[in-house]
Design goal:
The chain is mostly beta strands and 791 residues long. It has four domains: 5-159, Immunoglobulins (Immunoglobulin-like); 165-338, Immunoglobulin-like (Sandwich), CATH 2.60.40; 344-719, Neuraminidase; 733-786, no CATH class. Helix content is 6%, strand content 35%. Strands 4, 7, 10, 11, 13, 15, 16, 18 and 19 form a nine-stranded mixed beta sheet that branches. Strands 3, 5, 6, 8 and 9 form a five-stranded antiparallel beta sheet that branches. It contains six helices and 48 strands.
């Protein structure tokens, strides 16, 4: 699930046809770009690339494909790096190129390696002119081919943009402009992130001057960011975040925000007065989202290849104006992973406004909802997946505690009116419900295999009764199905919150009781076992041992299948791995090879080594937010060099959700008011791929856009969308049932069962080992080539 990668077959086809006198498309789509990581680029010295990462087997592969005996000196001018500045939305200036053989013009074929940045006519022609798209900045290589030879020439595009006030006609900005007060609390809030939306233009000359020439750095006024956090790693494709700040000056008159990449590939400045909706609410101007179109340009550019091969980070600056005085700027630096996070997040919502099915009434005496909701990538709000409406007080439609298979095919949810009852949901077929009527107290919190065909049952703690753990084919028969006879599992095993690895070759669980080899369960150990995929478990090993009455649970495997993130329970009233009644927990990780358990300090809101908290404390009882993180689950696919973990937290969400961290039960407060938005929300953090055991490979987390703003949200599963058959459109191979996403005859991208020209696999395509990947620095993660962030 990653973005912007070069298709070998697309470039070969384009250059080969051009050399023979044909043509192929020169639009961004014709360049055959699709899901994958940005590729390395050479310095433009006449070689194709400095390694195999750009095009499969390198120069000899392209040369053989293009034919010819290679006689004569093939040259393309200019040969040095060209730098151009482009205004967003424009396609000028252009860069002309000329191809010669022994100094004489020749008809070369032309293409580019970044169709999102620029396009060029395919030829054959002695000249090629590069036209920027005006939507993305960064380094693009012009590639020319003739007589079996290819040359590439680099162009660095510096994209610039500016605005004064919101633009309802700009792509994505419309949903960020609030027009009615009810919009503020509906679904995921304005723009899917809450707040009051974009502000208007700044017209007062004194205020304009204050924003452009601040006279105070803001330190005396305590000007600081509340959200996002400095050093956050963001993926591409997210809804724009809500910038939130605090200071003693109160409501701002206007703000100036700027976004700039460290390489200069993108720069933006926007000035805004207060959002118009504040005249109706009487609220303060203390937050505003980044305009969605600007966020797309900024994140589409940042994280790309640069001329000096240094990381291209994104820097946010904020200046606040009040009474003709400018304060700031204050800055933060973020990393953007060259990847899209796609799929659906399935999570439990207690107090959802989308359905009414509760057993009892809320604070206002009305029926409320409890259901499993889903957020599709890019959506500004969730939809109900499991939990139909039911008559007041019946509670028959309430669906709560749930698990999801990593392939996104199967969901199990418990019935809120009787937790012993469970239903299975076919997420591939309209979320069809299958009530498991004859299996009470069996499948609540079970561990599902990656494809949902096996369920390892949960025992103790969160189960509706106190059974032992067994393996079942899933879903079971309507009645009378027996557990699978297994080897390596004692008859008295009680495994809490079990979870399979994405390759289904391992399982991890809270070892409550039983005997496995030299280990005896007493609820203090997190264990892992190997699994043969059918019935045999072996090789028990400890992932974490807890002391002092602490507990470990909710393990979730990394997509590398060799480590887990888990919930480390610190304090609660009954030690049942819960998220309420004063429960305190953090997210830790451990590897299968050494069993070294380590705190994910940055994810939990702590500086290096846990020395101090970087989280804001807010006005209400949030001094302990670093120990209010629970229930991690990991995206089954690595993207952009990172592993992505989603978790529940009761931390402050800037100035949007600031209530007492334990306020989340709609029976105890008015959950229909935006001012009462509960802090129980879903957050996401990046973890470096290939982390060393015993280190903290995590980064500060970001708020998950699109989740319901007013409800208490928990237990998110980021599942893949159902795979696509050959011939269906795609953006990356991991979307396809047969593992490859390749160009079709009409220049589009479709699922396939073979790599291009039966060659190596690009990032996002199917692999068996790292040797299958075109880029030798890639690794094969959960069956797909992935870029590495080895420490």
């Amino acid at each position: 699930m990653v973005s912007l990668r070069l298709s070998v077959s697309g470039v070969l086809a384009c250059l080969f046809v051009a050399t023979l006198g044909g043509a192929c498309g020169s639009s961004p789509h014709g360049s055959n770009f699709h899901g994958g990581d940005d590729m390395d680029a050479s310095a433009g010295d006449g070689s194709l690339t400095d390694g195999p990462s750009l095009l499969g087997d390198g120069p000899s592969f392209l040369g053989d494909a293009l034919g010819g005996d290679g006689a004569g000196v093939f040259d393309v001018e200019p040969s040095t790096l060209q730098t151009i500045t482009v205004t967003a939305g424009q396609t000028t200036p252009t860069v002309p190129y000329a191809a010669t053989l022994d100094g004489n013009p020749i008809g070369a074929g032309w293409t580019v390696d970044r169709g999102d940045l620029a396009s060029i006519g395919a030829g054959p022609s002695p000249q090629g002119t590069l036209h920027p798209t005006g939507t993305t900045g960064g380094l693009v290589n012009v590639i020319a081919g003739y007589g079996g030879k290819t040359l590439q020439r680099p162009v660095f595009i510096q994209l610039t943009a500016s605005q004064n006030g919101s633009n309802a006609n700009a792509t994505g900005e419309g949903p960020q402009i609030a027009t009615t007060v009810p919009q503020l609390g509906s679904g995921g809030g304005i723009g899917g992130v809450g707040g009051e939306g974009l502000g208007g233009p700044v017209t007062d000359p004194a205020t304009v001057t204050a924003l452009s020439n601040p006279t105070s750095n803001g330190s005396a006024q305590g000007l600081a960011y509340l959200y996002p956090y400095d050093q956050t790693v963001f993926p591409r494709g997210l809804l724009a975040p809500l910038i939130q700040w605090t200071s003693s000056i109160g409501s701002a008159d206007a703000i100036a925000i700027s976004l700039q990449t460290t390489s200069g590939s993108f720069s933006y400045t926007g000035t805004f007065s207060a959002p118009p909706i504040l005249t109706q609410t009487g609220g303060s101007f203390i937050r505003m989202p980044i305009p969605q179109d600007v966020w797309a340009m900024a994140t589409g550019t940042a994280g790309g290849v640069t001329p000096n091969n240094k990381p291209d980070q994104l820097v946010l600056s904020l200046v606040v104006a009040k009474g003709g005085v400018g304060y700031g700027p204050i800055t933060e630096t973020w990393t953007v992973a060259p990847a899209l996070l796609e799929g659906t997040v399935y999570y439990n919502s207690y107090g959802t406004q989308l359905v009414k099915n509760s057993l009892d009434s809320d604070f206002n005496g009305n029926e409320y909802g409890a259901a499993v909701l889903g957020i599709d990538q890019g959506a500004t709000g969730p939809v109900v997946v499991a939990g139909p409406a039911s008559p007041p007080g019946a509670g028959t439609g309430c669906r709560v505690c749930h698990v999801v298979s990593s392939d996104g095919s199967t969901l199990i949810a418990q019935h809120g009116n009787n937790y012993a009852e469970t239903s299975a949901y076919d997420l591939k077929n309209g979320n069809a419900e299958n009530a498991l009527a004859n299996y009470d107290s069996t499948f609540g919190w079970a561990g599902l295999s990656a494809d949902g065909s096996l369920a390892f049952t949960n025992a103790g703690d969160l189960a509706a009764s106190d059974p032992v753990s067994q393996l079942y084919a899933f879903p079971p028969a309507a009645a009378g199905a027996k557990p699978i006879a297994t080897t390596g599992i004692p008859a008295n095993l009680k495994a809490g919150t079990p979870a399979f690895s994405p390759d289904t070759k391992h399982i991890a669980f809270d070892f409550l009781s039983g005997t496995l080899g030299a280990f005896t369960g007493n609820g203090t150990q997190l264990l892992a076992l190997d699994f043969d995929g059918t019935s045999t478990f072996s090789n028990p090993r400890v992932l974490a041992t807890m002391t002092g009455g602490m507990r470990a649970g909710f393990p979730s495997f990394f997509p590398t299948d060799d480590a887990v993130a888990f919930h480390y329970q610190l304090v609660n009233s009954n030690h049942l791995l819960n998220t309420w009644h004063g429960a305190e927990a953090q997210i830790w990780w451990s590897d299968l090879a050494t069993g070294t358990a380590s705190n994910l300090y940055a994810l939990n809101g702590l500086t290096a080594g846990g020395a101090s908290s970087y989280l804001p404390t807010g006005p209400t009882n949030h001094a302990k937010d670093t120990v209010l993180s629970y229930e991690p689950t990991v995206n089954p696919v690595s993207s952009g060099g990172y592993i992505w973990v989603i978790f529940t937290s009761r931390r402050l969400y800037g100035s949007v959700a600031t209530t007492d961290p334990w306020q989340s039960d709609p029976r105890n407060y008015d959950a229909t008011k935006v001012a009462n938005a509960t802090c129980k929300k879903l957050w996401v953090a990046a973890i470096d791929l290939n982390a060393k055991a015993g280190t903290d490979p995590s980064h500060p987390a970001f708020y998950l856009p699109g989740q319901e703003l007013l409800a208490g949200n928990a237990r998110g599963f980021w599942a893949l969308a159902p795979c696509k058959a050959d011939g269906m459109s795609c953006t990356a191979g991991d979307q396809c049932c047969n593992g490859y996403c390749e160009p079709s005859a009409d220049g589009g991208l479709v699922c396939s069962n073979t790599p291009p020209n039966a060659n190596c696999s690009q990032v996002g395509d199917k692999c068996t080992t790292a040797a299958s990947c075109c880029d030798t620095t890639n690794q094969c993660v959960n069956g797909y080539c992935a870029v590495s962030t080895a420490q």
